[in-house]
Design goal:
This protein is α+β, with helices and mostly antiparallel strands. Strands 6-3-7 form a 3-stranded antiparallel β-sheet. Strands 1-2 form a two-stranded antiparallel sheet. Strands 4-5 form a two-stranded antiparallel sheet. It is globular and about 40 Å long. The mean pLDDT is 86.
Length: 85
């Protein structure tokens, strides 16, 4: 979601982000590795569900996530991609 100077939505980006289950941290892919961030602007997003699932199934991503429950959300609405399916 991109806001104009008045705080109104100008563009909606329909991509998928990975969050922790409470949606307060977003998966952030950096050049030095993976991190959780509370800044949505740094969240790593994917084009579709398959791409997000394949990425999070990689062994080093699973090791980073560990026991934390992850959730897939739409970047523009921040709701689970599984809601209303």
């Amino acid at each position: 979601m991109i806001l104009d100077l008045n705080g109104k939505i100008t563009t909606a980006v329909h991509k998928i982000c990975v969050t922790n289950y409470t949606k307060d941290k977003f998966l952030y892919i950096t050049t030095s590795g993976l991190r959780w961030t509370d800044n949505f602007n740094f969240a790593s997003c994917f084009e579709n569900e398959q791409e997000a699932l394949e990425y999070t199934e990689r062994p080093y991503v699973q090791e980073f996530i560990g026991d934390m429950l992850e959730q897939y959300i739409w970047a523009d609405t921040r709701k689970s991609i599984y809601d209303n399916k």
